[in-house]
């Protein structure tokens, strides 16, 4: 007969085998770690101009920020216009169709934002994959 009878007085210990459940949990954990996409933020707050019809950010993209003080940031580090190629060229070599998004502050110099745009193109970004972010 399967199971235990309620009036059974035997002293057999009952244990639950959790090893298969733990295996499933670890497999799910590994799956979520491998499938997660990490977006590296610029590390500074940029006051972007308001433009109607803006689209959402892509998950796998390179974010560059140009602040109101005309400084260029990538990953929280000030890189300047000259550092754009050195920072994003290895990323674009790895994934050539990756988007480059420039977050230009509305008080930033327009020419500097365009210089960053030009440097991104020189680093190997596709022309239609470089954009300036707005609100």
TrEMBL record:
InterPro entries, per the entry: ExbD
UniProt keyword annotation of Transcription present: no
Keyword Transport recorded: yes
Alphabetical UniProt keywords: Cell membrane, Membrane, Protein transport, Transmembrane, Transmembrane helix, Transport
UniProt record similarity statement: Belongs to the ExbD/TolR family.
Membrane topology: Single-pass membrane protein; Single-pass type II membrane protein
Compartments, as annotated in UniProt: Cell membrane
TM spans (from-to): 20-39
Protein name: ExbD/TolR family protein
Classification via Pfam families: ExbD
Lineage: Bacteria, Pseudomonadati, Verrucomicrobiota, Verrucomicrobiia, Verrucomicrobiales
């Amino acid at each position: 007969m399967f199971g235990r009878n309620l009036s059974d007085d035997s002293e057999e210990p009952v244990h639950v085998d959790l090893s298969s459940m733990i295996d499933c949990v670890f497999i799910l954990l590994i799956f979520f770690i491998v499938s997660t996409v990490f977006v590296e933020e610029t590390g500074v707050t940029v006051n972007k101009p308001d433009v109607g019809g803006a689209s959402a950010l892509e998950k796998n993209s390179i974010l560059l920020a140009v602040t109101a003080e005309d400084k260029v940031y990538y990953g929280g580090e000030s890189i300047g216009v000259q550092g754009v190629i050195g920072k994003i060229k290895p990323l674009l070599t790895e994934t050539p169709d990756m988007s480059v998004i420039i977050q230009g502050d509305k008080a930033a110099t327009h020419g500097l934002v365009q210089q960053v745009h030009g440097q991104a193109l020189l680093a190997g970004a596709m022309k239609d994959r470089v954009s300036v972010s707005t609100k």
